[in-house]
Amino acid sequence: MFRYHESLKDAQPRPLWHDPEIMPAKMSELASDTTCELLIVGGGFTGLWAAMQAKEHNPDIDIILVERTFIGDGASGRNGGFLSTSLAHGEANIEAQFPGEEDQLELLGRQNMEAFLATLEKYGIDAEYEKTGETTVALDVESAERLHHEYLNYEGESDDIVWFDRQAIREQANSPTFFAGLLHRGGQDGVIHPGRLCWGLKKVLIDNFGVRIFEDTELLNITPDGQDVMETTCSGGVIRSKKVLLATNAFTSKIFRIRNSVVPIWDYQICTEPLTDTQLDKINWGKPGSRHAFSDDINMFHYFRLTKDNRITWGGGGAVRYYFNRGIDMKLNDAEAQYDQLATEFFEMFPQLENDVKFSHKWGGIIATSTRFCMVPGVAYGGRLAWSVGYTGHGVGASRFGARIGLELLGYNPTDVIKMKFVTKRALPWPPEPLRWLGIHFTQRALLKADEQGGKRGLWLKFLDMIGLGFTC
What 3-state DSSP class applies to 111? Predict the structure, then answer.
């Protein structure tokens, strides 16, 4: 029997964020044909932020938002709740994909996050935001040397970069696997409750702006009708609109360019019951000033954080999976081997908790991954249909900016931002099956091997580096 069976046996197979006690009632499904100016397809972060920004800038726009299941499902309700300022998955990826736009994207990222948080404050949305910064921990000597070299590059430039040697990092969070740590505490990076964020935005859109939201409404087909109208067939009726914004991310798209731009990568998480003060003291984590949001400095990295009620959510690592032919069936949420692996890796990091901590939730979710490792915007039908997809794990914050880009591409308050390479450069398409499955799995094995060798990259990863696909982030 699996060694940690007792710790997982009572875990509920749903996201922590989908607690029935805090989830709002569903809106009704579409039941007849109707019209609007702007139709938004998808009730996750991108769709909700698009409706919010469109209404704030143009209050008279008649907007309908449709969602196949419920608001906050999909990737938006199944992530770890890490809030990052980065729009393009880090400095290294920006340099590789969009040279010359580093400073502008950094500025746009800061502005986006400021506006994000200002919206929460303006409308009283309690998404349990906590400014923690971002802390990376080294799990071996080689990693510690890499992080210290990064720190030296920043040293003297900012007090927002904090170095922890082996003893110091264990005073922040006591794991025998920690060799060092690097904290980026500048900006507004932190953690958030993704479900409360979605439902807070939903409430404001309905109560303050009169946006019509239909849940349990599936997109079936979308076609242009003449030169001025898009006709969208949904379960329950046909919606005729002037503009359409697709915010479906990794879920199967009716548009070939979107479908070719992203692949669905499954990521799994587990979550502990609320830790007692005694349990927190065992790992020395959670005291004021040390409520870090962590990731470890390896290719197949884990990410872990404390919630408001002092649970630890734990995800990533080797449990990440791509399933043949873009598998997105929610039955893939039932993945006992992945949850067992996550529990094993959790207790390897925090063996002090092995005998008295249980997991309350276990769940999987889909990351929409593009070949450029950040959002992929696009537009078609003469500016009547736009999209922004493929956030590659950074969608909690970047989706607001992606929504803005989608709106600008539709002609709503356009700026020079849509002329940037970040917007105009197309992502390389993913190859067809079985090459896609083989390539992803071969790369994953190469990344795991590099982690076992202290980060030393083999020939395949060096080749990917050379052509700009080397998982540089």
Answer: helix
Maximum CA extent, the chain? 68
Q: What is the pLDDT of residues 373-421, one digit of tens each?
A: 999 999 999 999 999 999 999 999 999 999 999 999 999 999 999 999 9
The pLDDT tens digits of the residues spanning 329-358 come to 989 999 999 999 999 999 999 999 998 999
Residue in 361, 403, 428 with CA at minimum distance from that of residue 10: 361
Nearest Cα neighbor of 28 from 218, 210, 219, 214 is: 214
| Of 87, 366, 376, 453, residue with least CA distance to 461 | 453
Q: How far is CA 66 from the centre of its chain?
A: 21
* Measured CA distances, 356 to 55, 263, 353, 401 (Å): 49, 39, 6, 42
Cα gap 24→96, rounded to integer Å: 42
Q: Is the dihedral of CA 449, 450, 456, 457 positive or negative?
A: positive
Express each pLDDT in 70-97 by its tens digit.
Answer: 999 999 999 999 999 999 988 889 998 9
Beta-carbon contacts of 333 under 8 Å, excluding residues fewer than 6 positions away, are 13, 363, 364
Nearest Cα residue to 15 out of 193, 169, 181: 193
Helix (H) or strand (E) holding 207: helix 194-207
Among candidate residues 220, 266, 226, 216, the one with its CA nearest the CA of residue 366 = 266
